[in-house]
Amino acid sequence: MEGELKNLMMVWSIAAATMCYCHRIGRLIPEGASRLIAIIPAILLLLLLPLRLISIHLGGPSSFFLGWLSTFKLFLFAFGKGPLSSNPPLSLRHFVSIACLPINFQQTTTPSKTQIPKSPFNYASSSMLLLFPLLIPLYDKKEHLHPKFILFLYGLHMYIGLEFIFSTISTTTRKLLGVHLEPQFDKPYLCTSLQDFWGKRWNIMVNRVLQPTVYDPIVTLASPLTGRRWAPLPAIVATFAVSGLMHELVFYYIKRETRTWEAWEPSWDATCFFLLHGLCVAAEVALKKSLKGKKWQFPRVVSGLLSLLFVLYTAILLFLPALVRCHVYEKSTRELTALTQFVKDVYSVSRLYRFANVTTNT
């Protein structure tokens, strides 16, 4: 673990220095192909950096942030788009923060209590503290539990972990930079449809990156062929397909056992999962367009419940088994067990130290 922490510091130091380089490039080279050529080495470096990390709790988020989000943000920045491009230009510390982390500044004019979202940090932290001690013993007894229930626990583990990581980063960044940030999740369990779940509630930062990178260009290309009304349909499917491919890349990073290149043998389960949802969301959008103006509407409570059940069922069928094949949860359990033991050891040493001091004083 000590070596992993050193590599973590090295990876993020290099990533921050790379973003400083890109910030300078943005000042010197105008947007377009010339800036893209200057930024390509930075993008390639960001794709290589996660290879130095092999733990789930350190390497997983780093591969997602640097290998996916940061590379897409820099690609958009090369053409004057995305969260890194603004007028006036971002300061260096704001540029590096947005480029490296899954955050985006919230556009507000006058801060007020209604505009400042309540931090989910306390909720996420409490959930982690309450549920993780329960999950680890259950994993040890998974031979006696139904396989589908185990996959459900894995999904719960993943969701709470993402909430905790994003909330921690958001809260820390907000305190350090003094800015308002967009939320990463917006109560996905309250969705009213698949479109609402994926488009407005789940992993909002990914949506902010994929829309200008994939969705908008496909809409522009498809409009002459299908018309503006139906152009979003192929764009939706293409966006979900790219998301699936990037998930396969993240899975490649986290399944490695050594800090080197390994043969990439994707199962394509994640790609199938996102393609399926892309087709379903496209069908939903097409149905809404066809029924627009008509009085009939599906009850939101029913549609929301069906959407959540569909997401859960397909995740158990396709998405979570891909993580199981990467041995994500076994590695995660080992890391959490080691962390728990470390905390116990530190607590025991501190108690022994206090006892020794009391004995000496008496």
TrEMBL record:
Residues 182-275 form the Wax synthase domain. Pfam families: MBOAT_2. Keywords: Acyltransferase, Lipid metabolism, Membrane, Transferase, Transmembrane, Transmembrane helix. It is a multi-pass membrane protein. One of its GO terms (cellular component) is membrane. GO terms for molecular function: O-acyltransferase activity. The chain crosses the membrane at residues 32-51, 63-80, 151-169, 233-254, 266-285, 305-324. One of its GO terms (biological process) is lipid metabolic process. It comes from the Eukaryota. It is found in: Membrane. PANTHER family: LONG-CHAIN-ALCOHOL O-FATTY-ACYLTRANSFERASE 3-RELATED, MBOAT (MEMBRANE BOUND O-ACYL TRANSFERASE) FAMILY PROTEIN. Belongs to the wax synthase family. This is Acyl-CoA--sterol O-acyltransferase 1. The gene is LOC106775548.
